[in-house]
Amino acid sequence: MTTSLDFYFDFSSPYGYLASEWIDVLAEKYGRAVVWRPVLLGILFKSTGSAPLAQIPLKGAYSLHDFARSARYLGVDYRQPTDFPIATHHAARAFYWLADRDTSLARKFARACYRAYFVEDRNISTPQVLHDLADALAVDPAQLSDAVNAPAYRERLKSETDLAMQRGVFGSPYFIVDGEPFWGVDRLPQLEKWLSEGGF
Amino acid sequence: MTTSLDFYFDFSSPYGYLASEWIDVLAEKYGRAVVWRPVLLGILFKSTGSAPLAQIPLKGAYSLHDFARSARYLGVDYRQPTDFPIATHHAARAFYWLADRDTSLARKFARACYRAYFVEDRNISTPQVLHDLADALAVDPAQLSDAVNAPAYRERLKSETDLAMQRGVFGSPYFIVDGEPFWGVDRLPQLEKWLSEGGF
User: Fold this and answer.
1) Which of A62, A97, A153, A177 has CA atoms 20 to 30 A from the CA of B155?
2) Domains (range + CATH), chain A
3) Model ipTM?
4) B190 to chain A nearest CA, in Å?
5) CA quadruple A25, A106, A181, A59: dihedral positive or negative?
6) Inter-chain contact B49–A57, Cβ cutoff 8 Å?
7) What is the chain A residue with the closest CA to B62?
8) Which residues does chain B have within 8 Å of residue A200's beta carbon, measured at their own beta carbons?
């Protein structure tokens, strides 16, 4: 019996988006289920004293260049969002509300959020964009809006982020499978070797 | 006509060491010369506010794990040095002194330094280890020791590090080819695609 693979990400993370376009394909190839787990990178960054990449001198300019080049390398559409980075707690809470009802639908919603933000340059921190994305998936926007503002899902996202931190997650994307951690979309080749060989 | 490829690294950088074992093979495959350029990461870190990986909470523990796993992935011998990180200005000055005489010999010395430190756990910040490494390459240890302490090579290393910073280098390894920057040993696949296709 194989264990599932945890995929931690923040909806504002370019490398998280790039990974999201490949992780299910990769895991399925080796018969692993993927558990998508959005978290708040801003909270995780406090534990390591990190700052958003794009705001760091030198590294920021390099990163903007590398986001787009890595997307081309991986064959994924990418457009640098105008508003970047953004707050993602609403998108993440909406995800968990959906996941409690239908994990497949939640994943579709997550993909729609990522593509809206990183391909169509729509700011998914705004209620209107989340409303439209819900609507397109036949999810009642009013119910989604209620969930996003409900104390239960505020707590849920906090707990998921706390749990991630306890498990050592400090960036996005971050994968854990068989207890083995992989940080970054550039670790997908090592992750594949791990899945293929059962460790290395 | 093709331009050469600049390979920036610090002698105390595990990912720099891993890259050093592959960069010449890769570049030769596409007819590019490699210019090895040791710099002081501690100075470069000041421009981005970075700290040595191993000293950062969470990221430090992950990195120690990732150094060894990345080495296995790349088929490179690796042993975590007991003293880590270390000061590398002596090794770097010795490199430039040798490079001014014989670039091929300087590269052999650089490889010997990296393997002594990351395979044999010998502390290359100590005069005795540098002495022994020079001796093994038929380089006069006394002359090398003089060069390491000479103002000319102190200045040389400072200038090389300043130049690197002006070119945007903020980590190790860092490659620049055709004006295109690549940071990290995990960018070797993108670098290869670049060399193979003349950009992408």
Assistant:
1) A62
2) 5-197 (3.40.30.10)
3) 0.94
4) 7
5) positive
6) yes
7) A181
8) 69, 72-73
